[in-house]
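Quick review question:
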């Protein structure tokens, strides 16, 4: 066996050792490129990507991260058998509501709920569906306390069912077996004046500290820049 054949064999063995992960892609309203860039750094994962309807833009930014897969809507229990875990990078309000209410309309909610019943870990970033996130503040979806309270209740419900939701850093820690603190619902009642990611990039990382009133994404960006 020559050196090139040996290298191919080693790469194949290493690939088999990576966690086989189904990424379920739902429509996003922002942060596509930022999330995709971080996912490219998760080298311990072997991605297979299921794109749901209306996710053409998301698929473009995720190109090259993993192997596209298709599901015909049949036998979800058997189809999920080959996966070690599921990650939803853009958990949206619609899918969140379906899972929390036990509704099986969309492929995303169907597969997530079957996975939870089978004991397959399901992880999701909540930037799209958390009213307290920077993204939803920017588009004005944090203004109704009644609606925010309902979404917080839905997030609590899916966590009670076994889903792990949170920021990129929180989900990454959970995938690596570290304990993740329960998100506090009191975040919704915090006063305005958040320092967003765009603020940090515009004014420079040296202007802020982690003790400032940063949004989740701004805090993660600042932490990364300070460590680099």
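Suggested answer, residue by residue:
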């Amino acid at each position: 066996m020559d050196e090139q054949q040996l290298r191919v064999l080693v790469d194949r063995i290493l690939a088999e050792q990576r966690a086989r992960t189904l990424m379920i892609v739902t429509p996003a309203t922002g942060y596509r490129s930022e999330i995709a860039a971080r996912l490219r750094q998760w080298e311990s994962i072997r991605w297979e990507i299921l794109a749901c309807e209306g996710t053409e833009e998301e698929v473009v930014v995720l190109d090259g991260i993993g192997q596209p897969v298709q599901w015909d809507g049949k036998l979800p229990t058997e189809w999920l058998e080959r996966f070690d875990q599921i990650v939803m990078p853009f958990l949206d309000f619609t899918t969140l509501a379906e899972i929390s209410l036990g509704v099986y309309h969309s492929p995303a909610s169907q597969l997530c709920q079957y996975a939870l019943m089978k004991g397959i870990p399901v992880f999701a970033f909540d930037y799209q569906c958390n009213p307290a996130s920077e993204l939803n503040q920017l588009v004005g979806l944090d203004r109704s306390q009644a609606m925010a309270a309902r979404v917080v209740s839905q997030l609590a419900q899916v966590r009670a069912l076994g889903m792990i939701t949170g920021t990129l850093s929180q989900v990454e820690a959970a995938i690596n077996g570290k304990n993740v603190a329960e998100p506090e619902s009191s975040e919704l009642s915090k006063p305005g004046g958040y320092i967003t990611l765009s603020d940090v990039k515009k004014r420079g990382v040296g202007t802020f500290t982690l003790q400032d009133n940063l949004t989740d994404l701004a805090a993660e960006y600042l932490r990364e820049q300070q460590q680099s």
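Why it works: The two ends are 41 Å apart (CA to CA). The beta strands are 19-25, 45-51, 67-68, 85-88, 122-125, 164-166.
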